[in-house]
Amino acid sequence: MPSVLEALHCLRVAITVFDAEERLVFVNEHFGYLFRSLPPRVELIGLPYEELIRLELAGGEIAETMVAADAEDFIARRRAQFTTGDYRPRDIALADGRIVEIKARRAASGGWIALWTDVTAARHVLGRLENAIALSADAFAFFSGKDTLILCNGEYAALNQAETPEELIGQSFAELVCRQAARGLIASSDGPWIERCIDLHSRPAGAMTAEAASGTAYLMRDRATGDGGRVVVFTDVTEHRRVEKALAEQTRTLDKTRRALALSEAEASRQATYLADLAQRLDRTAAEADTTKTTLLRTMSHELKTPLNAIIGFSDLLGSLAENIRPEQVKEYAGLIHQGGKNLLRLINQILDLTRISAGRYELRPAALDAGSLLWCAKDAFDAAARKKNIVLDADGCPVGLLVQADENALTAMINQLLDNAVTFTQEGGVVRLSAGRHADAIRIGVCDNGPGVAPGDLERILKPFEQGGRGTADHSAGAGLGLTLVKALCDMHGGTLKIESVPGQGFAAAIELPAANG
Length: 519
Prior knowledge:
single chain; about 525 residues; alpha+beta; Beta-Lactamase; 5 domains; five-stranded antiparallel beta sheet; 17 helices
């Protein structure tokens, strides 16, 4: 039994056990990391759940938006998770910006077991996903493993004649398809079309075209997600359909086809001449431009066009070969599109962050953060990528309890960037070590690898925007050259420093030094 209790105390999830009178009978050590103002866990044993909630409020742990000026109502809503039998997970926003999810279940003894998990990063990811699909011109819908709608954007709501996405949440895919057909949103509203949609929805991935009563044509793509859910995307392809019909009309007579081809060839020749002339003028202009501006233009052109070409090219293939393409090809193309989108989003986010920092509009919200916990979270996030390359992520040098004064989002971004570089550039079978320690009045957070390294002469240069390692540094020359620049800028904003060291062939080491939190 002691070994079981010791294992529970090692978990990075808080566990609490209450008896039938809602009195606390067990709590593991991680509970203290979530609520740092509360007394030691041994002093909490025997307290009612309501008293624990009042201690959270008294210690300033709970965000004001959760209480809404009525503490008693907040307490009643928290207790209802036990007393009413509504065991759905509940999110609680903390005053320091973290979000804790509470899951409760009735125990066989008549009491309750509750799990407390820090889901801040997951909720932030979900928020970014919601923002991303809200900006998309396509209609996005995500379905749970039970095939009920859990997330969609405004375009999908409009497609279903709903005023807001929330109006559709909870409906099944079959209900939504019947809704589209019943409201005349799809011209082919008969049984076979509905059956085709449901059949497509049951496959690993696939695509089909649909036409609304208004004449708008959509490419409907449906595929399973890794968590057992589904994602459905409607893309407006009306213009493509119109072009296809126009070409079909032109091919009815041979004379019209020949004239169209002749005109197309002449136009193509004219365009080629114009583009060649334009390219020459652009080359002359680029040669006369400032070196920094030239670097920026060339880098931005390459880094933006590469993922965009992948996204556009493979999505065109999916659209044109939708009826004949095999599921494994769809999966491959979708993976390439997804990777291109991730690369493009990363570059845009880096540029936006550097722009905000340069303009003085990047707002920091410093708080006391556990450096070791953040490093362990980062390790968990990159474990899958490391395993693909047989790379060992060693976090044994990351003790918990070292408090650093920093903005959580900014520090997480710095750690993730350094760890992403290390995993990307370390060869298969390598080792990446994470560390945290105190140095005078600062906390040093380190990430080092045994990859190919960087030449000593390049160390100062690669900290500048759009600068990369030389050709002799293998993988360290990849990327747009903004990652270390952004890390250094965020360190400077915190009053800290970024130190990098490397020996070619012996690895690369980066260390962030930030002020330690008082106390």
